[in-house]
Design a protein that fits this description.
The complex is a heterotrimer of chains A (339), B (254) and C (290). With 339 residues, chain A is mainly α. Helix content of chain A is 71%, strand content 2%. Chain A has a domain of 214 residues. Chain A has 15 helices and 4 strands. In chain A, helix 9 crosses helix 11. The C terminus of chain A is likely disordered. Chain B is of the alpha/beta class and 254 residues long. In chain B, the strands form 2 sheets. In chain B, strands 6-7-8-3-9-10 form a 6-stranded mixed sheet, with helices on both faces. Chain B has a 4-stranded antiparallel sheet with strand order 2-1-4-5, covered by helices on one side. In chain B, helix 3 crosses helix 5 and helix 5 packs across helix 6. The two termini of chain B are 29 Å apart. With 290 residues, chain C is mainly α. Chain C contains 11 helices and 2 strands, in the order ααααββααααααα. Chain C has a two-stranded antiparallel sheet with strand order 1-2. The C terminus of chain C is likely disordered. Classes of the chains: A mainly alpha (339), B alpha/beta (254), C mainly alpha (290). Chains in contact: A-B, A-C. Chains A and B meet through helix 8, helix 9 and helix 10 of A and helix 2, helix 3, helix 4, helix 5 and helix 6 of B.
Chain lengths: 339, 254, 290
């Protein structure tokens, strides 16, 4: 579709030239955070939007990635960022594997509770295991990434790093979703017994989704750590998870553009409102937004806009193939219920 | 050949299947009938891995199916449909069928990520195969419509198409004709015969006696979790036990 | 040995309030199938209501308790009426999301109203501990455990002996039959949610003075409430009571003998282990209320 291509091109152009037309360095900081959150939102979307499992512990994967990357690149190990990053992804992926295997036994609300509990335990460990994590004092002095002779310390250089990472994350999600694997995930969410009856292995795909989702969040964590150069137990703050969830749900779960839009919206909007409105009001607004979304925009912003434009255009033919597995109000994986 | 031996399913104190045994020969259309509650769907569930049998053996083509998960059983060529309409509601008919083609693809995680030439070729092949299944079943004109927006009879066809797409050797159909009009039932019978021509063995659970007697080569009758009769339609129609089983309930043989 | 007894006593004090939280949530989660992530926020509400009554208005503690219960019941009823009733029939997960929204909104409303600084809630009890044999117990804590026990007993009586309680149990056992028998289903749902929230608020009013009141105190309370409900089995009043006591004691023993930093982990670990190994709860054989 021409409209979509145009929007994408415009967005890409704006993104690539951002350091030039974004005058205020603080605004560039906001964009960098938006890019990191895009990666996080995309990762949560993989789990929530495609397999239908809500993980409210996603900040745990983010935090594990941040801590792993920081610990590996600080003394005594002092590994390069380019090794610490994949290691962070791997550590988070391992946690994701554990959660994925748990999900097989649990459904819906119970899975949510387990993910919260898991995040809670990890958070407590990061606060209490002083020898490893330095507790509430955190790990300062996380080195910036180096690329040959250059150190990616300035906002401009870091912007391109996170932009590349976000683009890569998008491509990974896109390819995954538009494939046999993506179809299997959606099928498991839509009708698990039916999916199993045609040979789709629920165990394998759920764990895969969890692992990829966690690894991606871990990458986000690593990028965050090397940007802010400081990691503390605050990365496990529930408000990060809440923000990710809002981004995915308000943006449009089960679509690819949704989380991107959501991430941009909910990173930029608070900043825009920051002068006018205190942070507490924003979080309050988040809560209200969530409730409003569930009632009025259950599919999220992007699918609603798409549906509205489609209604306006009113062409013949139905929904295009597999473009979005977007469904009605949040539909989560129920247990198998054969007759 | 499907070999079911002494299949027993108990739920707590209730015996749903009291040790049934029967065989379904390759390439035949066999029906499983019986009054409500006789255990037909329970048998299906036990054969295809949705229920764990308390005892007994199930084997297809010598391959033991007992204790396996449904997806593994499907991989061995045994696919079932469900009593209540079971489609992927938010997906288009085309995508429903393409999902059914899952086992016919092999792209793994890394080849998907790398989007190799082989993966892309496979996707093209699968799309073509999906269209082929759609025309085989007669749903090509509904290709891009959402499955849950089709009329009931066509939704059941989608279900059938998804099962056919999985290219089974043995298909277990659970009340495929339920709720269909007369004309739809005739089309269904023709379709099942076409499926059999593709060298697929079919085992059908049905309540419509005329359909059963007209379609099947062998009829197996269950009542109270036991096999009470097995034979060709003419024998079953006259079988005193069968008549007694049915006269005791609302259904009656045609 | 004395230390052990002391820990046990402290554990019972905590456990009594956890039981209150758990009973409230087991009614809401176990019977109404509402995944109420905002449950802890009613706990916070109760604490702040007590704060307002005691510190600002200078009224007696008993009034504070009543105020908290009333606030919890009222807000709970409003919540159910405006948010949950329109969504009845929707998937359990949609409702969960709404309650998460309520959670966030309520907590930040508290933050805005009272500020982020923790408040000490004044109480009328002397601070010198009472000595009962080898045990020391602060009069406040004694009051807490006694009141909690009384409220739990009242809740039990309410559910099991009154007509309202019977109507509640009937509704959640078989809604359609209850409706046919003339039970006002909508009102029962509202009352149940209000009842559960009131119990949470009571717990907050009781524990608030023991610790401090701060806006995010509800987060842990929510999770511990879920922990209690899972330990005791959904809808299981007796299980929730026992589970609450068990959790309180386990936390105290853990904090005393293992590490105080990880005390909150007990609830988390309990959730994970029970869901993995005994999903029906530890007391699965006990009668369900519904």
């Amino acid at each position: 579709m021409i409209a979509r291509a145009a929007v994408t091109a415009l967005g890409a152009g704006a993104a690539l030239t951002a350091p030039w037309w974004v005058a205020n360095p603080y605004h560039l900081h906001v964009l960098i955070m938006a890019a990191i959150f895009t990666i996080l939102a995309l990762s949560l979307n993989l789990l929530l939007g495609y397999t239908g499992q809500l993980s409210l512990g996603h900040a745990a994967f983010f935090g594990i990635g941040a801590y792993t990357s920081a610990l590996l690149s600080l003394p005594p190990l002092e590994w390069s960022f380019w090794i610490a990053l994949p290691a962070a992804a791997a550590a988070a992926a391992l946690a994701g594997w554990g959660i994925g295997r748990l999900a097989l036994k649990l459904r819906g609300a119970y899975f949510v509770l387990v993910t919260i509990s898991f995040a809670g335990v990890i958070s407590l460990i990061s606060i209490n295991w002083m020898a490893l994590t330095n507790g509430p004092l955190g790990l300062p002095g996380v080195p910036a990434p180096t690329l040959g002779p250059w150190t990616l310390r300035t906002k401009t250089t870091y912007w391109y790093l996170v932009l590349a990472a976000a683009a890569l994350a998008f491509v990974v999600c896109h390819r995954l979703v538009r494939s046999r694997i993506g179809r299997a995930l959606v099928a498991l969410r839509e009708n698990e017994p039916l999916a199993e009856s045609v040979g789709i292995d629920g165990t394998r795909y759920l764990v895969l989704a969890a692992v990829v989702s966690a690894a991606m969040a871990g990458v986000g964590g690593s990028l965050y750590a090397h940007y802010t150069r400081f990691v503390s137990p605050e990365v496990f703050l529930f408000s990060y998870t809440v923000t990710m969830v809002i981004m995915v749900i308000a943006g449009g779960q089960g679509t690819l553009a949704g989380p991107v839009v959501g991430a941009l919206l909910f990173t930029v909007l608070p900043e825009v409102l920051r002068e006018a409105v205190a942070w507490q009001w924003q979080m309050l607004a988040y809560g209200i937004v969530l409730v409003v979304c569930v009632f009025f925009l259950p599919r999220g912003i992007v699918p609603s806009i798409v549906a509205a434009t489609r209604r306006a255009a009113r062409t013949a033919g139905g929904p295009p193939e597999m473009r979005s597995g977007s469904v009605g109000p949040l539909k989560m994986r129920r247990g198998p219920a054969p007759e | 050949m499907l070999d079911v031996s002494d299949l027993r399913v108990e739920f707590g104190g209730v015996v749903a299947l009291a040790g049934i045994s029967f065989r379904v020969q390759r390439g035949t259309i066999t029906s499983l009938i019986g009054p409500n509650g006789a255990g037909k769907t329970t048998a299906f569930n036990a054969i295809t891995g949705y229920l764990r049998p308390t005892r007994g053996r199930v084997a297809w083509d010598g391959d033991a199916l007992g204790g396996r998960r449904p997806c593994d059983i499907a991989r061995r060529g045994v696919v079932r449909t469900f009593q209540r309409t079971s489609v992927f509601p938010a997906l288009s008919v085309f995508d429903n069928v393409r999902t059914g083609l899952h086992l016919r693809g092999a792209a793994g995680f890394w080849s998907v990520l790398a989007r190799t030439a082989r993966m892309r070729a496979e996707e093209t092949r699968l799309a073509a195969a999906a269209d082929e299944v759609l025309s085989f079943v007669g749903l090509a004109h509904r290709r891009d419509e959402r499955a849950d927006q089709l009329p009931y009879g066509e939704q059941r066809l989608v279900e059938l198409a998804v099962a056919v797409a999985a290219r089974p050797q043995l298909m277990l159909l659970d009340e495929p004709a339920a709720g269909m009009t007369g004309a739809e039932k005739e089309r269904l019978v023709a379709l099942i015969r076409k499926i059999r021509e593709r060298d697929v063995t079919v085992l059908v659970v049905e309540h419509d006696m005329r359909l059963v007697m007209g379609l099947s080569e062998i009829v197996i009758v269950l009542n109270h979790g036991r096999v009470i009769a097995e034979g060709v339609p003419a024998e079953i129609r006259a079988h005193p036990e069968v008549i007694r089983a049915y006269l005791g309930s609302a259904d009656a043989p045609a | 040995m004395e230390q052990l007894l002391q820990h046990l006593v402290n554990g019972l004090v905590l456990g009594g309030t956890y039981a209150l939280l758990g009973i409230g949530l087991t009614l809401i989660f176990g019977l109404m199938s509402v995944v109420n992530f905002a449950h802890g926020e009613f706990y916070t509400l109760g604490a702040y209501a007590a704060f307002a009554t005691l510190a600002l208005a200078g009224l007696p503690f008993f009034v504070a308790l009543v105020a908290a219960i009333a606030a919890g019941a009222l807000l709970g009823a409003i919540c159910e009426r405006t948010l949950l009733r329109p969504l009845r029939g929707h998937s359990i997960d949609t409702i969960m999301l709404v309650m998460i929204g309520v959670w966030i909104a309520m907590q930040n409303a508290e933050l805005l109203a009272w500020g982020g600084v923790a408040r000490a809630i004044p109480h009328p009890f002397p601070t010198a501990p009472l000595t009962l044999g080898p045990l020391n117990i602060a009069p406040l804590r004694l009051f807490v455990v006694v009141t909690a026990a009384a409220l739990i007993a009242l809740a039990w009586l309410g559910i099991h002996t009154t007509r309202l309680g019977t109507a509640m149990r009937a509704t959640f056992q078989d809604r359609d039959t209850a409706a046919l028998m003339g039970v006002p289903i909508g009102r029962i749902h509202t009352i149940t949610f209000a009842f559960g929230s009131a119990l949470a608020a009571a717990a907050g009013a009781l524990l608030g003075p023991v610790f401090l009141a701060y806006p995010s105190m509800g987060d842990l309370a929510s999770l511990k409430a879920f922990s209690v409900v899972i330990l005791g089995g959904l809808g299981n009043l007796a299980g929730a009571t026992l589970g609450g006591l068990l959790l309180g004691v386990a936390e105290e023993l853990g904090a005393g003998y293992v590490s105080s930093g990880y005390r909150d982990a007990v609830g988390f670990v309990a959730i994970i282990l029970v869901l993995l190994f005994r999903p029906a709860g530890l007391f699965a054989r006990a009668e369900r209320i519904g």
